[in-house]
Specification:
The chain is an alpha+beta fold and 173 residues long. It has a single domain, classed as Phosphatidylethanolamine-binding Protein (Alpha-Beta Complex), CATH 3.90.280.10. It has 4 helices and 8 strands, in the order ααβββββββαβα. It has a 5-stranded antiparallel sheet, with no helix packed on it. The chain has a 3-stranded antiparallel sheet with strand order 2-1-3, with no helix packed on it. The termini are far apart.
């Protein structure tokens, strides 16, 4: 499973956002029902306006998961002073289902990078029990590690990220 973490290390997701972990479930993230999110791939912001489908494959119906989506490069990668900007939190997702079966704690905010190439990171945590996660106070200066510690979530069980940058008008056509 160490090879599965390599893109997260190269993309500095492990280090800047997460500590190293061992993936124990599979998380499949797709936009518009056919655009699969793979580590380091690029998406245009116009392709990620609507919230994605996030499937949890593994675990069982008695397990519950928390999904966090964050941008560690806000407002720009050269000076990410808002690190991290929170885009979405869904809790109480039953194992073997998708995020639509969970409780949306922080509504999906579509990515709108203005400066440079941003990473958008999806992190999945296994909850110790249902209804045990508290919402953060703000979207800016969110800290995935601190959020996990405050809610007793431990290390992630899965993570994936994609890159996005501002679209020119010509690209949107």
């Amino acid at each position: 499973m160490a090879r599965a973490l390599e893109p997260l290390v190269v993309g500095r997701v492990i280090g800047e956002v997460l500590d190293s972990f061992s993936p124990t479930v599979k998380m499949v993230v797709t936009y518009n029902s056919n655009k699969l999110v793979c580590n380091g791939h690029e998406f245009y912001p116009s392709a990620v306006v609507s919230r994605p489908r996030v499937e949890v494959q593994g675990g069982d119906m008695r397990s519950f998961f928390t999904l966090v989506m964050t941008d560690p490069d806000a407002p720009g990668p050269s000076d990410p002073y808002l690190r991290e900007h929170l885009h979405w939190i869904v809790t109480d997702i039953p194992g073997t289902t998708d995020a639509s079966f969970g409780k949306e704690m922080v509504g999906y905010e579509s990515p709108r990078p203005n400066i440079g190439i941003h990473r958008f990171v999806f992190v999945l945590f296994k909850q110790k029990r249902r209804q045990s996660v508290n919402p953060p106070s703000a979207r800016d200066q969110f800290n995935t590690r601190q959020f996990a510690a405050e809610n007793d979530l431990g290390l992630p069980v899965a993570a994936v990220y994609y890159n996005a940058q501002r679209e020119t008008a010509a690209r949107r056509r």
